Amino acid sequence: MNKYSVQNIAGIMIVLILFIGCLTAAFFLTSFLYTTIEIFPSALVVQVINSLLGLMIGAILIKIAARFDRPTKGLFDSIIHAQKKISSGNYEVELDTNGKELGPFGELVESVNQMAIELSKMEKMRKEFIANVSHEIQSPLTSIHGFAQTLRNSQLSPENRIHYLDIIESESVRLSKMSDSLLRLASLEADTMKFEPEIYRLDKQLRSIILACEPQWSDKNMNMDIMLEELEIRADKDMMGQIWINLIHNSIKFTPKGGNMSIAIRQDGEDIVGVISDTGIGISQEDQIYIFERFFKTDRSRKPANQGSGLGLSIVKKMVDMHKGKITVESKLGLGSTFTVTLPNKN
Question: Residue 329, SS3?
């Protein structure tokens, strides 16, 4: 006996059970009515009425079942088809959520549509990330390759040879920093970087970083205004160090010689607020909403030697988020920038 015969027998048995159930329901219903109205017809009439009523009940049940089964079957067929498209990498999926017969399945349909939208965004971000990485790596590699070929010229003067070697070294350092930033960002986004908060003096940490950066801001003859309240914070000390170093280096880099820079931390209720301001080149209003995105650079005209990877502020934003804090920027072109880091301080 094959599976189709078994299915047929099972189907017949289900139909018989439903038919018997309908006849039984008709029997009890008519018996109740006869007793209530005190009419007792002959056995033949009772049998005929029960049979007809049982068939009517069965027909009504079949009609109701068909009404609910048809949209449900179509709905699940659509969901299965959508999931197959998504699994093959096609996220152009939009199930109809306006159907009146969806009932409790409306949320299921909406969740499938939302999943397709989120996966589409992630795929777009992945492609953009790969394209950006390829572009950023290609630039220094092209410089290194070109100047390495130039160095083969035996007629180069010693001065030019040293100059080209300096460029190769600078581009190699840029590649190394980019690689390190990519690894750090990948670790942060994958939540594999250890987060080890401890209580320490934030003002001492910032003062130490400012002193370590003295050669850079002294070389540009910058005026430094330091206001550090004596504060303790519970945070990951290494991550916080990366946050301050990145923001301070950026301010120094984009502030011209003789410019001003201020660094301050203060207690504000249950929060600690750090503010780093400068009188540098500034950031346009339209660029400010993108500066924390990966590989975004506000000044596209910078010389390669002075370019960063466009990852620093992305890393800063991720580290601030891990501390349940927030970072904001206020800036105007030609008038400088102010970065504000707000961190909860619940010891």
Answer: strand
3-state secondary structure of 136: helix
Whether residue 328 contacts residue 340, with contact meaning beta carbons closer than 8 Å, is answered with yes
Structure tokens at 80: 């299965």
Per the document, the length of the chain is: 347
pLDDT tens-digit map of 294-304? 666 665 444 44
Residues 7, 50: contact at Cβ < 8 Å?
no
Angle at 197 between CA 194 and CA 198, to 5 degrees: 135
> In the structure encoding, which two tokens stand for residue 288, read together?
């400010």
- Return the axis-axis angle of helices 237-253 and 202-212, rounded to nearest 10°: 40
Instruction: Identify whether the C-beta of residue 274 lies closer than 8 Å to the C-beta of residue 341.
Output: yes
Cα–Cα distance measured from residue 224 to residue 239, given in angstroms and rounded to the nearest whole number: 24
Encoded tokens for 37: 């109205």
| The pair of three-digit structure tokens given for residue 338, joined into one six-digit string | 């102010």
Cα–Cα distances in angstroms (integers) from residue 17 to residues 3, 13, 21, 26, 244, in the given order: 21, 6, 6, 14, 76
DSSP string across 180-235: HHHHHHHHHHTT-S---EEEEEHHHHHHHHHHHTHHHHHHTT-EEEEEE---EEEE
What's the 3-state SS for 293-323? CCCCCCCCCCCHHHCCCCCHHHHHHHHHHHC
Instruction: Tell me the sheet residues that pair with 272.
Output: 267, 343
Mean pLDDT, consecutive 10-residue segments, the chain of 347 residues? 53 64 69 69 66 68 57 64 74 66 66 79 70 69 84 85 85 76 69 82 92 86 91 90 89 90 92 93 83 65 50 84 91 90 82
Other Cβ atoms within 10 Å of 151 Cβ, number: 14
pLDDT single digits (tens) 97-149: 665 555 566 677 777 778 878 777 777 766 766 666 676 677 778 888 888 88
Residue entry with tokens 């203060």: 266
Distance of CA 128 to the CA centre of its chain: 14
Distance (Å, whole) CA 341 – CA 325: 7
